[in-house]
Amino acid sequence: EKKDKPEAKKEKAPKKEKKERKEGGRKRKRHETYSSYIYRVLKSVHPETGISNRAMAIMNSFINDIFERIATEASRLARYNNRHTLTSREIQTAVRLLLPGELAKHAVSEGTKSVTKYMSNEAHA
């Protein structure tokens, strides 16, 4: 194991700019990202691997893109079925339509697992 390069900087909460006052006395707009979550997943899968700022920006952009595609498709499905509410069913169908084969199956099973875990949580009720 080489220790030439310093460890990747550990991210904490989602990156947000501080609410410093500008010249006009206005607050800065918050800029939230998924970087802390991406970092956590990376460390759980490959603890020794770091990630550059550019790669983090690309991953963040990718997650935003996939999120928007799923939300748009789920919204379209709800509209087709004269529904006003997006449920896990619309999200699941959108994922099945957007992602190819095996990837869709894994995404659906992980989503189902997460919803089950959320619903079984006592604090939820």
UniProtKB/TrEMBL annotation:
List the GO terms this entry assigns under cellular component, sorted alphabetically: nucleosome; nucleus
Top-rank taxon of the source lineage equals Eukaryota
Q: Where is the composition biased (Basic residues)?
A: 12-31
**InterPro entries on file:** H2A/H2B/H3 (IPR007125), Histone-fold (IPR009072), Histone_H2B (IPR000558), HISTONE_H2B_site (IPR055333)
Which region ranges are annotated with the description Disordered?
1-31
Output the Gene3D superfamilies linked to this UniProt entry: Histone, subunit A (1.10.20.10)
Q: Which UniProt keywords apply?
A: Chromosome, DNA-binding, Nucleosome core, Nucleus
Q: Where in the cell is it found?
A: Chromosome; Nucleus
> Where is each Core Histone H2A/H2B/H3 domain found?
15-97
| PROSITE patterns reported in the protein's UniProt record | HISTONE_H2B (PS00357)
Is Disulfide bond a UniProt keyword of this protein? no
Gene Ontology MF term list? DNA binding; protein heterodimerization activity; structural constituent of chromatin
- Please name the SMART domains in this protein's record: H2B
Q: Is Secreted among the key words of this record?
A: no
Q: What does this protein do?
A: Core component of nucleosome. Nucleosomes wrap and compact DNA into chromatin, limiting DNA accessibility to the cellular machineries which require DNA as a template. Histones thereby play a central role in transcription regulation, DNA repair, DNA replication and chromosomal stability. DNA accessibility is regulated via a complex set of post-translational modifications of histones, also called histone code, and nucleosome remodeling.
Could you give the subunit structure recorded for this chain? Answer: The nucleosome is a histone octamer containing two molecules each of H2A, H2B, H3 and H4 assembled in one H3-H4 heterotetramer and two H2A-H2B heterodimers. The octamer wraps approximately 147 bp of DNA.
Q: Which family, according to UniProt?
A: Belongs to the histone H2B family.
Can you name this protein?
Answer: Histone H2B
Q: Which organism is it from?
A: Streblomastix strix
